[in-house]
Automatic annotation (TrEMBL):
Biased composition (Gly residues): 16-25
Source organism (scientific name): Oryza meyeriana var. granulata
Region of interest called Disordered, as start-end residue ranges on this chain: 1-50, 82-105
Protein name in UniProt: No apical meristem-associated C-terminal domain-containing protein
Bias type Basic and acidic residues, positions: 86-99
Source lineage: Eukaryota, Viridiplantae, Streptophyta, Embryophyta, Tracheophyta
């Protein structure tokens, strides 16, 4: 394989793009048939996704977005709590210094 898995060539090989006989035993389609499929004129082949698969994928994407939003909200709340804690600690130190200085006088 030329290139790593993140390279276009590596990705094409990894996902079985580029024709040839893959492990599923599917032959490569002719360039004309592939062009017709892209234009929507060709017959749906084995590589087309069903509406059910697309709907499931879209549902997963929505769930993923919600999870990301929830994690971001939790991170913001955590950062705010840390800032409040730091402010409280700073105030504590200030009060302790003040009380020490009044005791020493």
């Amino acid at each position: 394989m030329t290139g790593g898995p993140s390279s276009p060539v590596g990705s094409a090989v990894l996902f079985g793009v580029g024709g040839g006989n893959g492990s599923r035993g599917e032959g490569s389609a002719s360039p004309k048939a592939a062009k017709e499929q892209r234009k929507g004129k060709g017959k749906p082949g084995k590589t087309w996704l069903s509406d059910e698969n697309v709907a499931q994928f879209n549902g997963l994407q929505v769930e993923k977005k919600l999870a990301i939003d929830n994690m971001a909200a939790a991170a913001r709340e955590h950062a705010q709590a840390l800032a409040e804690h730091a402010a409280t600690e700073k105030e504590k130190v200030k009060v302790e210094k003040k009380s020490r200085s009044t005791r020493n006088c």
